[in-house]
Amino acid sequence: MDPNNPVNNLIKIMNFTMYAVLIGAAAFAVYSYKSGLFSSVETFRQFIVGFGIWAPLIFLLIQIVQVIIPVLPGAVTYAAGVLIFGVWMGLVYNYIGVCIGSTAAFIL
Fold it and tell me: Which of 9, 29, 66, 74 has its CA 20 to 30 A from that of 105?
């Protein structure tokens, strides 16, 4: 293995990124459990709406994390997505988040 090989460098970067994302996801899971974020759809909705224009991106990230860390209740996030963004956009955001999360979980 050549340490200067661009492919090896890319693999190292990808591994580092995946570990960083996993650690961040675990930290978010602990935070959300302790704060009761997933205790109800309304609590989750208030949390997401608080991000304003960034709410769709934050929602997608949470969807990705809830697929990777299966102890987070998916039903709350699915329902909240529809209630926050409407039926069609909620469906789109849920679908995209679950697909990306599933891909990440498969890679891990």
Answer: 9
Kindly report the number of other CB atoms within 10 A of residue 81's CB atom.
28
**Total structural domains within the chain:** 1
Residue 39 is part of which domain span?
6-107
- Would 26 be classed as within a structural domain? yes
pLDDT in 10s for each residue of the chain, 108 residues = 566 777 777 778 878 887 887 787 778 778 877 877 767 778 878 888 888 899 999 999 888 888 887 776 777 788 888 888 989 999 999 999 989 988 988 887
Asked if residue 67 belongs to a domain, the reply is: yes
Sorted by sequence, the CB contacts under 8 Å of residue 52 that are 6+ apart come out as: none
19 is a domain residue:
yes
